[in-house]
Amino acid sequence: MIARVAQACFWLNRYLERTETTARLLQVTQHVSLDLELDDTALWQPVLDVSGEEKRYAALYGRELEGDEVQEFMTWDERNPVALVSSLRFARDNARTIRETISLEMFQAINSLWLWLGSREGRRLYERERHLFYERVKTGCQLFHGLYHTTMLFDEPYDFMRIGSLFERADQTMRLLDATWAATATPARRTARPTDAPRWLAALRSLSGVEAFTKRTRGTLVGPTVAAFLLYDDRFPRAVHHCMLRAALFVDRARGGEASEAGTRTRAVLAGLLERLRTSDIDAVIARGLPLEIADLTAGMVQLSEALQEELFDVTAAMPRAG
Amino acid sequence: MATTRTRRAALFEGYAGLPGAFDELFDAEGRPRREAQRVVGLLDRMGPAEFRARKRISDLMFRDAGVTFSVYSDGRGVERIFPFDPIPRVIGSGAWARLARGLEQRLTALNLYLADIYGPQRILKQKVIPRGMLEASKGYLPQMRGITPPGGVYVHVAGIDLIRAGDGEFVVLEDNLRTPSGISYVLENRAVMKRVYPHLFRRASVQPVDEYPTRLREALESLAPADPGDRDAPRTVVLTPGPYNSAYFEHCFLARRMGVELVEAGDLVVQDDRVYVKTTRGLARVHVIYRRIDDAYIDPEVFRPDSLLGVPGLVRAYRAGSVTLANAIGNGAADDKAIYPFVHDMIRFYLGEEPVLQQVGTWICDRPDECSYVLANLRSLVVKSVDEAGGYGMLMGPQATKKELEEFTRKIKAHPRGFIAQPRIELSTCPTLIGNEVRPRRVDFRPYVVTGTSTWIVPGGLTRTALRRGSYVVNSSQGGGSKDTWVLGGEDA
Q1: If you count residue pairs, one on A and one on B, with CB atoms under 8 Å apart, how many are there?
Q2: Which of B229, B302, B326, B340 has a Cα-to-Cα distance from B22 of 20 to 30 A?
Q3: pTM, two decimal places
């Protein structure tokens, strides 16, 4: 397929995944604020940590964290590139450049979500029923996901869309894990606080992972167990290991089969990441420091994206002609 | 049990056309025309409330489907919906047959003219058209001389703008032979009409328009260069300037419906005088390009060395015959507003026939005597800049302010070649929903002519409508809307 279109498929799904994850995180955090006696900073700092836009927030709203302002910043503020409204705009812009590739229903789904978000009705629901507002954003994204499984050819564009979703999902899970780890008791700060378990619960909930966690680990709700689950589980849809396993499948399909000469470096980087995820021992990882491990994995993800970009999206005239 | 039925108001109650203008649905006595009787009856029975409710549904459908065009008012590119009016315009089969005959004749002559001016130039040598007229045309590209496009076809897709004079006769206003747009609205309007007003279509024998994308692809591929080595041949693409182009929606729409890929210039590369597209697995040969980018931006090697747009080497490949471009490069020499007055002469010269379709009498400001007539009668004329489209650069004499008249006098004197003038023609009207009322609004018409190894005219076309009272300007960029156009099959006169 046309390289530029492949790239747009990839980014369309990345941005849409980001939209959904952001909505999930804001919805859950807002909900937690009703149960927990936490000040705004303690509650909303992890949200900013996940976004990586802390500095921009400070510049725009001041250093004091205020819950409502964080939500405004993360939902509506177009100056914030990872605000919900920005992610959805990027997703829709990408969809618009490839509307002849995606199915008509898919474009309509993302377009009506975008128009609704920009309408007075959208803003009004945000003011009145915030929980429902985020729910509506989530279901809008989910409608799109459902549609691409059921209305698109299982062909290259589909493969690149899946790769986009999976990369972003793994990335967001690591960001959330990192931020929650920082906000709760860690081996370096041993006393567990009464808010720790609810925080892990919230993190799992924002990933739709509470029940899966219970089924898969039978563990208690403490950092190391959750971390192991979110990084290494091979069945949970938002666990990093699972995302990379699935991604390997679609990367191979998109390259034109395992033996294909296209994208060999992408495949090698991905294999390296998979090996590390498969063989790591959580105790050893924690002993070295979980944030270090997350940093390494994130660097691996960056390498992976770069390889994909260079090998499959940046086709130059020097490339061999397709047979 | 007795029920009281409140008498519903009829949609067209009290409707009256404009004096002097032909109305598409009603005759001068206010009776529905024969071809429109059925649809007028059905709409009347539906009643205004139901009709307006359905209109809201159709508006939403256009919005969600993103059927938009882009406008550059603030540099960022705003997408707008092309307002849709659900009262169809109806053309009887007899009127259509005559129109179709006239269009085919006109296109045949225009195509021969292009082959001639980029070839032997007989028409210039025999002084039917003054050489200076051609050479002053911005659309004439001497670099293209000596290149014969596959099958000798220059105009693969034409959109001919017509109006209907007071007597109901179709009159050609303008030829669009480069990259005419609007066909996507024709198809989308019909699709929405069928979904929102299905009962109107029952037994109405409205001719279908959906075939267009398939017919276009077939026509283009019938002219593809041979490439026996490639099992994917011919590979056809639609070339778009990108998402910021005002017709981007249409480019996507056509690529999707033709089942071909949409590419931007950066996706294409020329090697050894062949065109390739960059895919995720390397380069793949392209045989046919339905290009929706202007001549000036198509190949920086030939036209605009400063341009970052375009595909370097594309003209080399075209010259080598390894790629079919639709439309051909250089067609602007035939749809130039200053060449328009000569089209009837072309028909006589190349075909030895009398023109079927009328066209509007035109004064060419480049001719001193005609120019002085124009300057003396500015107040009653419509002046058009020959290099602009979309209703820009136009003076509507009868409605112009003193300042505008002075400004145009100055412009015409400074650059007479740049302007032509025509009498103001009464555009026909069609009933149009304005707020809660049905009012006469002026319309024009653009049918589409597709040529491959043979010519096909889609039975339908784009009816654009001025939405402001008294307005003659139907362009979408100037606030016009559109309607579905029904060409009836069968036996009516």
Answers
A1: 88
A2: B340
A3: 0.86
